């Protein structure tokens, strides 16, 4: 089970602006002194921890970051402008390593904590700086300092936000494979999933969450029957459960739902305090939409947010992602 999210990114700070070589030219001052200004500083690359972010998934889409260079110096002793720093927000808890050596560079464990990973180059001195009693008209200026270029490994220990629970064969792993980057084993028999699988779900840029697909739970699970219960500790700290009910199974959905919840309660009553969204799965197998609507009504009457999906056809999947994200933001 992979609990670590990783990304390798390439960063480059801004180089310094070059110093300027210039001589004062004004009416009535025939031989003005050197007045080339200094170059501006290049932008730093600064990472800032943000507790509202939970994964490194965005860095699979954008891997190269470059800060702007400082402006060159100008005449009349005017310095070039400093470039603004490039601020990159990362999830709280992100570790930074040198990609080549593995050396730990920083650990941003606090919200708003920052780490300057690459410093912008200093601006070069303009020729005014080189004036002295011997050389009153220096024809030299400094170039700006070079940028820093690095490959950095980002690492984040994933905290599971959402647990997918339900009876064996309910379609939990199929759902995970539909909504996330994870490729769990899927098969038409119970207990296909033997250990939890984690996946990262991207809602949109800067909005993603972590889901765990659990082995199926069955009657007697709290006494150790089946597999699921011993993994429940992995989702004890998650904020939300998606509770899958397979409606291609003709037995009473609400009774099955209550049965699983009873197992949760017997294992640890606190698990029932967690927010659950009821997910009626495999709706492509049921032509009778009235029946589905009836089920939804039944669960809503019990006070549960209820969605109907087909991981096979994709129906209801978008809504499931958005609703889950909204509920997470609220909890
Ligand atoms: N028709 C249909 N079949 C589905 C759907 N989702 C899953 N299945 C099928 O249901 C069977 C079980 O799917 P899994 O995703 O392995 O179920 P699971 O809940 O992870 O099962 P365990 O890991 O054994 O607990 C597979 O044959 C899937 O292809 C769906 O939306 N529609
Ligand atoms: Mg499974």
Write a structural description.
- With 331 residues, the protein is an alpha/beta fold.
- It has 2 domains: 4-157, GTP1/OBG domain (Spo0b-associated Gtp-binding Protein, Chain: A), CATH 2.70.210; 162-330, Rossmann fold, CATH 3.40.50.300.
- 18% of the residues lie in helices and 26% in strands.
- It is built from 6 helices and 14 strands.
- The chain has a 6-stranded mixed β-sheet with strand order 10-11-9-12-13-14, with helices on both faces. The chain has a 5-stranded mixed β-sheet with strand order 3-1-8-5-6, with no helix packed on it. The protein has a 3-stranded mixed β-sheet with strand order 4-2-7, with no helix packed on it.
- A hairpin with a 2-residue loop joins strand 10 and strand 11 (207-213).
- It is elongated.
- The two termini are 26 Å apart.
- The model has no long low-confidence stretch (mean pLDDT 91).
What is the alpha-carbon Rg in Å?
30 Å
Instruction: List each distinct ligand once.
Output: guanosine-5'-triphosphate, magnesium ion
> Order of strands across the biggest sheet?
10-11-9-12-13-14
Task: Note the main sheet.
Answer: 6 strands, mixed
SSE order = EEHEEEEEEEHEEHEHEHEH
What is the CATH homologous superfamily assignment of the largest domain? P-loop containing nucleotide triphosphate hydrolases
Uncertain regions spanning at least 5 consecutive residues: none
Based on the coordinates given, report the CATH architecture of the largest domain: 3-Layer(aba) Sandwich
- Helical content, roughly? 10-25%
Q: Average pLDDT across residues?
A: 91
Distance between the termini: 26 Å
Number of domains: 2
Number of helices: 6
> Which fold name is given in CATH as the topology of the largest domain?
Rossmann fold
Shape: elongated
Instruction: Please identify the top-level CATH class of the largest domain.
Output: Alpha Beta
